[in-house]
Design goal:
The structure is a single chain. The protein is α+β, with helices and mostly antiparallel strands and 224 residues long. It is 20% helix and 11% strand. The protein contains 4 helices and 6 strands. Strands 2-1-6-5-4-3 form a 6-stranded mixed β-sheet.
């Protein structure tokens, strides 16, 4: 009997299907497109901040003339108000590190779509870098390619500085504990933590949904 496929989004279902085919029907390998080609055909998906639950996509719908509710009002918010959404950092774990502390926080980066993020090493000495000075390809929350890419938990840089650090009164925090909490709160195939972020929270759909009346929730704490 085949396992039950994930149902929260088409891309995950496609990934599941490909994996089952490759695992149980090797003869079909030569007939399948690569994972990247198939997902590119279907489109990507959003992942969400582990701290605030919002999107990393700054290209949201803003239109004052749209009479529907499925957009933000340009009279309330502008594209410049959304730029902070795209700058992220990530919390990861280096299991091969000889140090007692295994977790790390990357430098600044962006979401690359299809569950992957691209970040700079930053100044945390625990960020794993190979002998060529390169980092692994990071997967947000889960690895959609099933190629054992390292999993990290992404968050807006603003949320990290203004929310997480301020909660600890800007004292040094134990990132190993934070990572363990995130790991316990994640569910495979979901691009978010299973936490109650309030309303509007991260959706179970493929992309973030824009709605009139919720514009203020997309404005950075540094802009309010």
């Amino acid at each position: 009997m085949l396992p039950t496929p994930p149902s929260w989004q088409p891309a995950s279902t496609a990934t599941f299907f490909i994996k089952v085919c490759l695992d149980q029907q090797p003869i079909y390998r030569s007939f399948l497109k690569t994972y990247g080609e198939i997902i590119a055909d279907m489109g990507g998906w959003d992942v969400y901040c582990a701290i605030c639950g919002s999107t990393f996509n700054s290209r949201l719908s803003v239109d004052s003339d749209d009479e529907t509710d499925l957009t933000y009002s340009g009279e309330v918010i502008g594209e410049s108000d959304l730029q902070w959404l795209q700058t992220l950092r990530a919390l990861g774990l280096s299991t091969d590190s000889p140090e007692e502390r295994k977790s790390f926080i990357t430098g600044q980066g962006v979401y690359d779509d299809h569950g992957m993020i691209s970040v700079a090493p930053g100044d945390d000495p625990h960020v794993p870098i190979d002998e060529r000075g390169q980092m692994p390809l990071w997967s947000a929350y889960h690895d959609p390619t099933y190629e054992v890419n390292p999993i990290v938990f992404p968050f807006h840089e603003v949320c990290y500085k203004d929310i997480l650090l301020s909660c600890f009164k800007y004292e040094k925090i134990n990132t190993d504990v934070i990572y363990a909490i995130c790991e316990e709160s994640r569910e495979d195939q979901l691009p978010r933590l299973m936490l109650d972020y309030g309303n509007p929270g991260p959706p179970y759909e493929q992309y973030w949904e824009c709605r009139k009346g919720e514009e203020v929730t997309r404005i950075s704490t540094q802009q309010k």
